[in-house]
Write a structure and sequence with these properties.
The chain is α+β, with helices and mostly antiparallel strands. 19% of the residues lie in helices and 33% in strands.
Amino acid sequence: MYGAALVACAATAALARDFQGTWQGYIHLEQVDRPYRFEIAQDPQGHWAARVIIDNDWGDVWKSDSISVNGGVLRFSIPFLGYSHGSTYEGHLIEDGTAMDGMWTAGMPAPLRMVRATPATLWRETAHQTRFVTVDRNVKLEVLDWGGIGRPVVMLAGARLTAHLFSQFAAHLTPHYHVYGVTRRGCGASTAPAVPVIPASALTLVAPNTYDVRPLPNNPYDANRLGDDIIEVLDALHIQRPVLVGHSIAGEELTSVASRYPDRVAGLVYLDAFAEFAFSDGKRYDALFTDEHPMRITLLPGQTPQSYLDVDSALLLGMHEFRSFPNVPALAIFALPHRISGLTGKALFNFNAGQRRAID
């Protein structure tokens, strides 16, 4: 009897240990297979931890806030991953320990089979050099250098993402360009300055537990401060007149740099980044926060405006309203959804003739 119990306990422990390691798999969504990677570990005290990378080379690491292993079943949750209520995974280890079948839930549940990665199958980034450049007092930015020949191209990722996002893309550019990537402050391995204290003048109570928050003074995530960071990187690495490529919110950095230092760049490429924070026609404020169009936040019980705000919020509150476009060659690329009926008849931007020529 005792022998059988010991065998059962040993089998359960073996299954639990088998969860440790790196797992890879795909979810099929909207005609696209999205890669997911899990890194599962257990420390000597028996505490489990999970890290998730979505789309493989986003570079941002999402850490679990709860995780449990019960025999052959793994469960963990990731806070605020794409949805305010977070995301979860529950997987069941198959008998030989080489895969687990489960469900990934982020808004809607989707089946996700994870296969244990081996040295031969592990997803890897394109080879690059990493260095850290000091851009401000006690602030260093991670800079990736994929090498290559020709004109320099400097790539900037969207909010919460890192330069690793461009790993696979860079491989297509290096035959023709020398490609760099910069991880902005507050993201990835770059320094994250503290979010400033919110002055009373920046807050307006508009309803119970609901505030309007206006741009913060001395915000280390101000758009022009982020633009200055890019100039510091160009100076430190002796990069002359690069093409700046920016994804999403990085559009504000592109416009900030080109508006103030047009002679420092050869051109701009906006990847889903030419929104109101990159150029404003003074009419649309869907993605731009100003004194006249503040950010509205609703607090949970026990939350304060200061505890609510994080680096992402500081980035949004650091936006500028750029009303004129710099005289720099630029290309704006938009990834439209598969179903665009809801956008029919809606103009994304209103350019006058001079501004249109500036971005052709």
